[in-house]
Protein backbone atom coordinates (compact mmCIF):
# COMPACT_ATOMS: atom_id res chain seq x y z
CA UNK A 1 0.00 0.00 0.00
CA UNK A 2 1.20 3.52 -0.84
CA UNK A 3 1.01 6.81 1.06
CA UNK A 4 -0.86 8.33 -1.91
CA UNK A 5 -3.52 5.62 -1.68
CA UNK A 6 -6.58 6.81 0.22
CA UNK A 7 -8.18 4.79 3.01
CA UNK A 8 -11.89 5.07 3.77
CA UNK A 9 -12.61 4.20 7.39
CA UNK A 10 -15.20 4.46 10.11
CA UNK A 11 -16.16 2.99 13.48
CA UNK A 12 -19.24 2.53 15.65
CA UNK A 13 -19.35 1.35 19.27
CA UNK A 14 -22.74 0.70 20.87
CA UNK A 15 -23.84 -0.43 24.34
CA UNK A 16 -26.43 -2.84 22.90
CA UNK A 17 -29.89 -3.51 24.31
CA UNK A 18 -29.12 -5.62 27.37
CA UNK A 19 -26.10 -3.96 29.01
CA UNK A 20 -25.87 -0.84 31.18
CA UNK A 21 -22.25 -0.02 30.36
CA UNK A 22 -20.27 -0.11 27.15
CA UNK A 23 -17.11 -2.05 27.99
CA UNK A 24 -15.94 -1.97 24.36
CA UNK A 25 -13.50 0.61 23.05
CA UNK A 26 -11.85 1.34 19.72
CA UNK A 27 -9.36 3.75 18.23
CA UNK A 28 -8.25 4.71 14.72
CA UNK A 29 -4.93 6.46 14.21
CA UNK A 30 -4.21 7.63 10.67
CA UNK A 31 -0.59 8.54 9.98
CA UNK A 32 -0.17 12.31 9.88
CA UNK A 33 2.83 12.41 7.56
CA UNK A 34 4.44 10.37 4.81
CA UNK A 35 7.42 9.63 7.05
CA UNK A 36 5.15 8.29 9.80
CA UNK A 37 3.28 6.20 7.24
CA UNK A 38 6.55 4.66 6.02
CA UNK A 39 7.56 3.79 9.60
CA UNK A 40 4.24 2.55 10.97
CA UNK A 41 1.25 2.90 8.64
CA UNK A 42 -2.33 3.45 9.83
CA UNK A 43 -3.51 1.80 13.05
CA UNK A 44 -6.93 0.34 13.93
CA UNK A 45 -7.74 -1.20 17.33
CA UNK A 46 -10.76 -2.88 18.95
CA UNK A 47 -10.87 -3.90 22.63
CA UNK A 48 -13.66 -5.67 24.53
CA UNK A 49 -13.29 -5.22 28.29
CA UNK A 50 -14.38 -7.68 30.94
CA UNK A 51 -14.77 -7.59 34.68
CA UNK A 52 -18.17 -5.97 35.08
CA UNK A 53 -19.32 -2.38 35.54
CA UNK A 54 -16.52 0.20 35.27
CA UNK A 55 -13.76 -2.42 35.44
CA UNK A 56 -14.14 -3.65 31.86
CA UNK A 57 -14.49 -0.08 30.64
CA UNK A 58 -11.23 0.87 32.32
CA UNK A 59 -9.36 -2.12 30.87
CA UNK A 60 -10.43 -1.47 27.28
CA UNK A 61 -9.82 2.27 27.70
CA UNK A 62 -6.26 1.62 28.91
CA UNK A 63 -5.67 -0.68 25.93
CA UNK A 64 -6.75 1.83 23.27
CA UNK A 65 -4.80 4.63 24.97
CA UNK A 66 -1.55 2.79 25.68
CA UNK A 67 -1.23 0.80 22.46
CA UNK A 68 -1.20 3.65 19.88
CA UNK A 69 1.09 5.83 22.01
CA UNK A 70 3.62 3.01 22.45
CA UNK A 71 3.41 1.86 18.84
CA UNK A 72 4.08 5.24 17.24
CA UNK A 73 6.78 6.22 19.77
CA UNK A 74 8.67 2.92 19.48
CA UNK A 75 12.18 2.92 17.95
CA UNK A 76 11.77 -0.70 16.78
CA UNK A 77 12.28 -0.84 13.00
CA UNK A 78 10.24 -3.99 12.40
CA UNK A 79 6.57 -2.99 12.27
CA UNK A 80 5.27 -6.37 13.41
CA UNK A 81 7.54 -6.49 16.45
CA UNK A 82 6.68 -2.88 17.30
CA UNK A 83 2.99 -3.80 17.23
CA UNK A 84 3.58 -6.83 19.43
CA UNK A 85 5.57 -4.70 21.90
CA UNK A 86 2.75 -2.13 21.99
CA UNK A 87 0.23 -4.82 22.94
CA UNK A 88 2.63 -6.06 25.63
CA UNK A 89 2.84 -2.50 26.97
CA UNK A 90 -0.96 -2.32 27.09
CA UNK A 91 -1.04 -5.61 29.00
CA UNK A 92 1.50 -4.26 31.50
CA UNK A 93 -0.49 -1.04 32.00
CA UNK A 94 -3.75 -2.92 32.64
CA UNK A 95 -2.09 -5.46 34.94
CA UNK A 96 -0.37 -2.74 36.96
CA UNK A 97 -3.60 -0.78 37.41
CA UNK A 98 -5.46 -3.93 38.40
CA UNK A 99 -2.81 -4.82 40.98
CA UNK A 100 -3.15 -1.42 42.67
CA UNK A 101 -6.84 -1.76 43.53
CA UNK A 102 -8.66 -4.84 44.83
CA UNK A 103 -11.80 -3.79 42.94
CA UNK A 104 -9.86 -3.92 39.68
CA UNK A 105 -8.01 -7.17 40.40
CA UNK A 106 -7.74 -9.43 37.32
CA UNK A 107 -9.61 -7.00 35.09
CA UNK A 108 -8.97 -7.67 31.43
CA UNK A 109 -9.79 -6.98 27.83
CA UNK A 110 -9.48 -8.53 24.42
CA UNK A 111 -7.38 -6.64 21.90
CA UNK A 112 -7.18 -6.82 18.12
CA UNK A 113 -4.83 -4.29 16.51
CA UNK A 114 -4.25 -3.96 12.76
CA UNK A 115 -1.69 -1.78 11.04
CA UNK A 116 -2.05 -0.96 7.36
CA UNK A 117 0.90 0.45 5.40
CA UNK A 118 3.71 -0.14 2.93
CA UNK A 119 4.61 -3.27 4.87
CA UNK A 120 1.14 -4.69 4.11
CA UNK A 121 -1.03 -5.71 7.05
CA UNK A 122 0.12 -6.89 10.47
CA UNK A 123 -2.33 -7.97 13.17
CA UNK A 124 -1.57 -8.40 16.88
CA UNK A 125 -4.33 -10.26 18.63
CA UNK A 126 -5.42 -11.52 22.06
CA UNK A 127 -8.93 -12.76 22.91
CA UNK A 128 -12.05 -13.40 20.83
CA UNK A 129 -12.52 -10.10 19.02
CA UNK A 130 -11.87 -10.62 15.32
CA UNK A 131 -10.15 -9.21 12.24
CA UNK A 132 -11.52 -10.02 8.79
CA UNK A 133 -10.31 -9.30 5.27
CA UNK A 134 -12.89 -9.00 2.50
CA UNK A 135 -11.54 -9.36 -1.02
CA UNK A 136 -14.11 -9.37 -3.81
CA UNK A 137 -16.77 -11.89 -2.68
CA UNK A 138 -14.65 -13.72 -0.09
CA UNK A 139 -14.27 -13.01 3.62
CA UNK A 140 -11.26 -14.41 5.49
CA UNK A 141 -11.00 -14.47 9.27
CA UNK A 142 -7.38 -13.51 9.95
CA UNK A 143 -7.41 -14.11 13.72
CA UNK A 144 -7.92 -17.13 15.95
CA UNK A 145 -10.58 -16.93 18.67
CA UNK A 146 -8.90 -17.51 22.03
CA UNK A 147 -12.02 -19.17 23.43
CA UNK A 148 -12.53 -22.56 25.04
CA UNK A 149 -14.56 -23.75 22.06
CA UNK A 150 -11.90 -22.85 19.49
CA UNK A 151 -9.03 -24.17 21.59
CA UNK A 152 -10.80 -27.52 22.03
CA UNK A 153 -11.63 -27.64 18.33
CA UNK A 154 -7.98 -27.05 17.44
CA UNK A 155 -6.88 -29.83 19.80
CA UNK A 156 -9.53 -32.21 18.44
CA UNK A 157 -11.33 -32.51 21.79
CA UNK A 158 -14.51 -30.56 21.04
CA UNK A 159 -16.65 -33.71 20.84
CA UNK A 160 -15.57 -34.67 24.38
CA UNK A 161 -17.17 -31.61 26.00
CA UNK A 162 -19.42 -32.44 28.95
CA UNK A 163 -22.67 -30.44 29.42
CA UNK A 164 -21.07 -28.08 31.96
CA UNK A 165 -18.18 -27.31 29.62
CA UNK A 166 -20.57 -26.70 26.71
CA UNK A 167 -22.20 -23.91 28.69
CA UNK A 168 -18.78 -22.27 29.08
CA UNK A 169 -17.53 -22.83 25.54
CA UNK A 170 -17.35 -19.09 24.82
CA UNK A 171 -15.16 -18.37 27.86
CA UNK A 172 -11.99 -16.73 26.57
CA UNK A 173 -8.67 -18.37 27.32
CA UNK A 174 -6.41 -15.37 26.81
CA UNK A 175 -6.78 -11.63 27.51
CA UNK A 176 -4.79 -8.52 28.38
CA UNK A 177 -4.45 -7.63 32.04
CA UNK A 178 -5.07 -10.61 34.35
CA UNK A 179 -1.48 -11.89 34.12
CA UNK A 180 1.87 -10.12 34.12
CA UNK A 181 2.70 -11.59 30.70
CA UNK A 182 0.48 -12.72 27.84
CA UNK A 183 1.00 -14.69 24.64
CA UNK A 184 0.23 -12.51 21.62
CA UNK A 185 -0.64 -13.81 18.15
CA UNK A 186 1.15 -11.84 15.44
CA UNK A 187 -0.35 -12.39 11.98
CA UNK A 188 1.09 -11.20 8.68
CA UNK A 189 2.38 -9.45 6.80
CA UNK A 190 -0.48 -9.82 4.32
CA UNK A 191 -0.43 -7.92 1.01
CA UNK A 192 -3.01 -5.18 0.45
CA UNK A 193 -4.78 -4.93 -2.91
CA UNK A 194 -6.94 -1.99 -4.02
CA UNK A 195 -10.50 -2.65 -2.90
CA UNK A 196 -9.55 -4.80 0.10
CA UNK A 197 -11.78 -4.18 3.11
CA UNK A 198 -10.69 -4.93 6.68
CA UNK A 199 -13.21 -5.35 9.50
CA UNK A 200 -12.36 -5.43 13.21
CA UNK A 201 -15.19 -6.24 15.62
CA UNK A 202 -16.07 -7.41 19.11
CA UNK A 203 -18.10 -10.55 19.75
CA UNK A 204 -21.24 -8.44 20.15
CA UNK A 205 -21.39 -8.38 16.35
CA UNK A 206 -20.43 -11.95 15.51
CA UNK A 207 -22.94 -13.37 18.00
CA UNK A 208 -25.77 -12.00 15.83
CA UNK A 209 -24.46 -11.33 12.31
CA UNK A 210 -22.94 -14.06 10.14
CA UNK A 211 -19.63 -13.82 8.29
CA UNK A 212 -21.29 -13.89 4.86
CA UNK A 213 -23.56 -10.99 5.86
CA UNK A 214 -20.59 -9.00 7.18
CA UNK A 215 -18.82 -9.57 3.85
CA UNK A 216 -21.65 -8.27 1.68
CA UNK A 217 -22.49 -5.27 3.85
CA UNK A 218 -18.86 -4.17 4.23
CA UNK A 219 -18.21 -4.66 0.50
CA UNK A 220 -21.35 -2.99 -0.87
CA UNK A 221 -21.64 -0.01 1.49
CA UNK A 222 -19.37 2.86 2.47
CA UNK A 223 -17.57 2.18 5.78
CA UNK A 224 -19.69 4.62 7.79
CA UNK A 225 -22.98 3.17 6.54
CA UNK A 226 -21.71 -0.40 6.85
CA UNK A 227 -20.59 0.05 10.47
CA UNK A 228 -23.92 1.55 11.43
CA UNK A 229 -26.02 -1.12 9.69
CA UNK A 230 -23.99 -4.00 11.15
CA UNK A 231 -24.42 -2.69 14.70
CA UNK A 232 -28.12 -2.05 14.13
CA UNK A 233 -28.63 -5.59 12.83
CA UNK A 234 -26.92 -6.96 15.95
CA UNK A 235 -29.28 -4.90 18.12
CA UNK A 236 -32.38 -5.90 16.16
CA UNK A 237 -31.44 -9.56 16.65
CA UNK A 238 -31.19 -9.24 20.40
CA UNK A 239 -28.36 -6.82 21.15
CA UNK A 240 -27.19 -9.08 23.98
CA UNK A 241 -23.75 -7.49 24.28
CA UNK A 242 -21.81 -4.33 23.53
CA UNK A 243 -21.03 -4.14 19.83
CA UNK A 244 -18.07 -2.42 18.16
CA UNK A 245 -17.17 -2.39 14.47
CA UNK A 246 -14.20 -0.76 12.71
CA UNK A 247 -13.97 -0.85 8.91
CA UNK A 248 -11.11 0.27 6.65
CA UNK A 249 -11.16 0.12 2.85
CA UNK A 250 -8.04 0.46 0.69
CA UNK A 251 -8.97 2.65 -2.28
CA UNK A 252 -7.59 2.50 -5.82
CA UNK A 253 -4.07 3.71 -6.51
CA UNK A 254 -3.70 7.06 -8.30
CA UNK A 255 -2.92 6.60 -11.99
CA UNK A 256 0.71 7.75 -11.74
CA UNK A 257 1.63 5.75 -8.60
CA UNK A 258 3.15 2.25 -8.94
CA UNK A 259 1.91 -0.49 -6.58
CA UNK A 260 3.90 -1.26 -3.44
CA UNK A 261 6.23 -4.26 -3.40
CA UNK A 262 4.68 -7.38 -1.84
CA UNK A 263 5.49 -7.75 1.87
CA UNK A 264 8.25 -10.23 2.69
CA UNK A 265 8.09 -12.59 5.64
CA UNK A 266 11.27 -12.76 7.67
CA UNK A 267 11.40 -16.54 7.54
CA UNK A 268 11.21 -16.64 3.75
CA UNK A 269 14.73 -15.48 2.97
CA UNK A 270 16.07 -18.90 1.98
CA UNK A 271 19.02 -18.75 4.41
CA UNK A 272 19.65 -21.56 6.89
CA UNK A 273 21.63 -19.44 9.32
CA UNK A 274 24.45 -20.02 11.82
CA UNK A 275 22.92 -22.95 13.79
CA UNK A 276 22.94 -25.11 10.67
CA UNK A 277 26.54 -24.13 9.84
CA UNK A 278 27.72 -24.97 13.36
CA UNK A 279 25.92 -28.33 13.27
CA UNK A 280 27.58 -29.20 9.94
CA UNK A 281 30.99 -28.17 11.28
CA UNK A 282 30.67 -30.30 14.45
CA UNK A 283 29.43 -33.41 12.62
CA UNK A 284 32.04 -33.05 9.86
CA UNK A 285 34.82 -32.69 12.47
CA UNK A 286 33.88 -35.96 14.18
CA UNK A 287 33.50 -37.71 10.82
CA UNK A 288 36.99 -36.55 9.81
CA UNK A 289 38.33 -37.76 13.17
CA UNK A 290 36.86 -41.21 12.51
CA UNK A 291 38.47 -41.38 9.07
CA UNK A 292 41.81 -40.32 10.59
CA UNK A 293 41.60 -43.09 13.21
CA UNK A 294 40.99 -45.64 10.46
CA UNK A 295 44.09 -44.43 8.65
CA UNK A 296 46.09 -45.04 11.83
CA UNK A 297 44.49 -48.52 12.12
CA UNK A 298 42.31 -47.81 15.18
CA UNK A 299 39.67 -49.99 13.56
CA UNK A 300 37.01 -50.23 16.26
CA UNK A 301 36.88 -46.58 17.34
CA UNK A 302 37.46 -45.29 13.80
CA UNK A 303 34.69 -47.45 12.31
CA UNK A 304 32.22 -46.40 15.03
CA UNK A 305 32.91 -42.68 14.57
CA UNK A 306 32.89 -42.89 10.78
CA UNK A 307 29.61 -44.81 10.56
CA UNK A 308 27.86 -42.77 13.26
CA UNK A 309 28.83 -39.30 12.09
CA UNK A 310 28.73 -40.24 8.42
CA UNK A 311 25.08 -41.18 8.89
CA UNK A 312 24.52 -37.99 10.87
CA UNK A 313 26.13 -35.94 8.09
CA UNK A 314 23.82 -37.50 5.48
CA UNK A 315 20.73 -36.97 7.66
CA UNK A 316 21.74 -33.37 8.33
CA UNK A 317 22.23 -32.76 4.62
CA UNK A 318 18.77 -34.13 3.78
CA UNK A 319 17.17 -32.04 6.55
CA UNK A 320 18.98 -28.91 5.34
CA UNK A 321 17.76 -29.44 1.77
CA UNK A 322 14.17 -29.82 2.95
CA UNK A 323 14.43 -26.72 5.13
CA UNK A 324 15.96 -24.71 2.28
CA UNK A 325 13.17 -25.82 -0.06
CA UNK A 326 10.55 -24.80 2.52
CA UNK A 327 12.09 -21.36 3.02
CA UNK A 328 12.14 -20.74 -0.72
CA UNK A 329 8.63 -21.97 -1.44
CA UNK A 330 6.64 -19.33 -3.31
CA UNK A 331 3.14 -19.06 -1.87
CA UNK A 332 -0.03 -17.40 -3.15
CA UNK A 333 -0.14 -14.20 -1.10
CA UNK A 334 -3.79 -13.63 -2.04
CA UNK A 335 -4.77 -16.59 0.13
CA UNK A 336 -5.03 -16.19 3.88
CA UNK A 337 -2.15 -17.94 5.62
CA UNK A 338 -3.72 -19.77 8.51
CA UNK A 339 -4.18 -23.09 10.23
CA UNK A 340 -7.54 -24.54 11.14
CA UNK A 341 -9.96 -23.37 12.38
CA UNK A 342 -9.48 -19.89 10.87
CA UNK A 343 -12.46 -19.46 8.58
CA UNK A 344 -13.19 -18.47 5.00
CA UNK A 345 -16.64 -17.83 3.57
CA UNK A 346 -18.24 -16.47 0.43
CA UNK A 347 -20.29 -13.32 0.85
CA UNK A 348 -24.05 -13.66 0.80
CA UNK A 349 -25.53 -12.63 -2.53
CA UNK A 350 -26.61 -9.00 -2.52
CA UNK A 351 -30.10 -9.91 -3.76
CA UNK A 352 -30.66 -12.37 -0.88
CA UNK A 353 -29.43 -9.87 1.70
CA UNK A 354 -31.62 -7.10 0.27
CA UNK A 355 -34.64 -9.41 0.43
CA UNK A 356 -33.84 -10.20 4.07
CA UNK A 357 -33.46 -6.52 4.98
CA UNK A 358 -36.73 -5.74 3.15
CA UNK A 359 -38.58 -8.26 5.36
CA UNK A 360 -36.95 -6.69 8.41
CA UNK A 361 -38.15 -3.24 7.31
CA UNK A 362 -41.73 -4.53 7.14
CA UNK A 363 -41.49 -5.82 10.72
CA UNK A 364 -40.07 -2.52 11.94
CA UNK A 365 -42.68 -0.47 10.08
CA UNK A 366 -45.47 -2.50 11.65
CA UNK A 367 -43.98 -2.02 15.14
CA UNK A 368 -43.48 1.71 14.52
CA UNK A 369 -47.09 2.19 13.44
CA UNK A 370 -48.50 0.13 16.31
CA UNK A 371 -46.39 1.80 19.01
CA UNK A 372 -46.49 5.33 17.60
CA UNK A 373 -42.77 5.85 17.00
CA UNK A 374 -41.77 9.35 15.95
CA UNK A 375 -40.56 8.66 12.40
CA UNK A 376 -40.01 11.06 9.49
CA UNK A 377 -42.41 9.18 7.23
CA UNK A 378 -41.69 11.40 4.20
CA UNK A 379 -37.99 10.55 4.38
CA UNK A 380 -38.94 6.92 4.95
CA UNK A 381 -41.15 6.84 1.86
CA UNK A 382 -38.49 8.48 -0.33
CA UNK A 383 -35.81 5.98 0.69
CA UNK A 384 -38.19 3.03 0.37
CA UNK A 385 -39.22 4.05 -3.15
CA UNK A 386 -35.58 4.45 -4.14
CA UNK A 387 -34.82 0.98 -2.75
CA UNK A 388 -37.74 -0.56 -4.66
CA UNK A 389 -36.61 1.12 -7.90
CA UNK A 390 -33.05 -0.15 -7.40
CA UNK A 391 -34.34 -3.69 -6.83
CA UNK A 392 -36.34 -3.56 -10.07
CA UNK A 393 -33.17 -2.46 -11.87
CA UNK A 394 -31.18 -5.18 -10.06
CA UNK A 395 -28.86 -2.59 -8.56
CA UNK A 396 -28.72 -4.43 -5.27
CA UNK A 397 -25.85 -2.48 -3.71
CA UNK A 398 -27.85 0.73 -4.22
CA UNK A 399 -30.96 -0.96 -2.83
CA UNK A 400 -29.01 -2.04 0.25
CA UNK A 401 -27.82 1.54 0.71
CA UNK A 402 -31.39 2.86 0.65
CA UNK A 403 -32.65 0.17 3.02
CA UNK A 404 -29.81 1.09 5.38
CA UNK A 405 -31.22 4.63 5.47
CA UNK A 406 -34.66 3.26 6.33
CA UNK A 407 -33.35 1.00 9.10
CA UNK A 408 -31.41 3.93 10.53
CA UNK A 409 -34.58 6.03 10.69
CA UNK A 410 -36.29 3.38 12.80
CA UNK A 411 -33.29 2.78 15.05
CA UNK A 412 -32.69 6.47 15.71
CA UNK A 413 -36.27 7.36 16.54
CA UNK A 414 -38.16 4.35 17.76
CA UNK A 415 -36.49 0.98 18.20
CA UNK A 416 -34.84 1.87 21.52
CA UNK A 417 -38.25 1.81 23.21
CA UNK A 418 -38.19 -1.96 22.68
CA UNK A 419 -34.96 -2.31 24.63
CA UNK A 420 -36.37 -4.75 27.15
CA UNK A 421 -38.34 -6.83 24.65
CA UNK A 422 -36.78 -9.89 22.99
CA UNK A 423 -36.97 -10.17 19.19
CA UNK A 424 -40.12 -11.95 17.98
CA UNK A 425 -39.82 -15.69 17.48
CA UNK A 426 -39.00 -16.58 13.90
CA UNK A 427 -38.37 -12.93 13.01
CA UNK A 428 -37.04 -12.46 9.52
CA UNK A 429 -34.29 -10.30 10.97
CA UNK A 430 -32.32 -13.33 12.15
CA UNK A 431 -29.21 -14.39 10.30
CA UNK A 432 -30.62 -17.64 9.01
CA UNK A 433 -32.52 -18.25 5.79
CA UNK A 434 -35.70 -16.34 5.09
CA UNK A 435 -38.91 -18.13 5.96
UniProtKB/TrEMBL annotation:
The chain crosses the membrane at residues 274-296, 302-321. It comes from Maioricimonas rarisocia. SUPFAM superfamilies: PP2C-like. GO terms for molecular function: protein serine/threonine phosphatase activity. Pfam families: PP2C. This is PPM-type phosphatase domain-containing protein. InterPro entries: PP2C (IPR015655), PPM-type-like_dom_sf (IPR036457), PPM-type_phosphatase-like_dom (IPR001932). Keywords: Hydrolase, Membrane, Transmembrane, Transmembrane helix. Residues 8-250 form the PPM-type phosphatase domain. It comes from the Bacteria.
Amino acid sequence: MRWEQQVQYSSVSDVGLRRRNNEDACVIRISKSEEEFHRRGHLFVVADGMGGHAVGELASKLAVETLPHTFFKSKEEDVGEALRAAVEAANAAIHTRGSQNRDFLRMGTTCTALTLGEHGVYIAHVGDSRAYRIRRDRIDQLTFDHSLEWELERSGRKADLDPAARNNRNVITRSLGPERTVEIDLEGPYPVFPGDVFVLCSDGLINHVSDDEIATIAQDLAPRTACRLLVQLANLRGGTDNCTVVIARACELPANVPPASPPVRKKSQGELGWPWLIAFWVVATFFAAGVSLLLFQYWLTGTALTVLFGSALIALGVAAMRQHRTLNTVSDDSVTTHWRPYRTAVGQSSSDLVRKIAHLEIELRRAAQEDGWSIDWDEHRTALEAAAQARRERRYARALQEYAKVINLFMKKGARVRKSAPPPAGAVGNNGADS
